[in-house]
């Protein structure tokens, strides 16, 4: 499932450069994650890198975008052309 950034985000800017899929960008008020690009780092890392660096733990799974590990891997392969 894709991840989402909650309104607890403090705009610290540490998550954006960690995303290997460039799924994170600055929104109107807080950072946002593009669910079409978020693979929870499947294919790149064992754990979502944005969650690893977030100092306020504001990046839960997005219940609106439920995906299996296989679906996330398929998205990774499509995004990277591998």
From TrEMBL:
It comes from the Bacteria. InterPro entries: 4Fe4S_Fe-S-bd, 4Fe4S_Fe_S_CS, PSI_iron-sulfur_center, YfhL-like. It comes from Sulfurisoma sediminicola. This is 4Fe-4S binding protein. Keywords: 4Fe-4S, Electron transport, Iron, Iron-sulfur, Metal-binding, Repeat, Transport. Gene3D superfamilies: 3.30.70.20. GO terms for molecular function: 4 iron, 4 sulfur cluster binding; metal ion binding. PANTHER family: PHOTOSYSTEM I IRON-SULFUR CENTER (PTHR24960:SF79), PHOTOSYSTEM I IRON-SULFUR CENTER-RELATED (PTHR24960). GO terms for cellular component: cytoplasm. Residues 1-29, 31-64 form the 4Fe-4S ferredoxin-type domain. Pfam families: Fer4 (PF00037).
């Amino acid at each position: 499932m894709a991840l989402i950034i909650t309104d607890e985000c403090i705009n610290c800017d540490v998550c954006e450069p960690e995303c290997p899929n460039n799924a994170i960008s600055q929104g109107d008020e807080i950072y946002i994650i593009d669910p079409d690009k978020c693979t929870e780092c499947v294919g790149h890392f064992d754990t979502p890198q944005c969650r690893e660096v977030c100092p306020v733990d504001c990046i839960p799974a997005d219940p609106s975008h439920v995906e299996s590990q296989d679906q996330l891997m398929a998205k990774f392969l499509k995004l990277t052309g591998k």
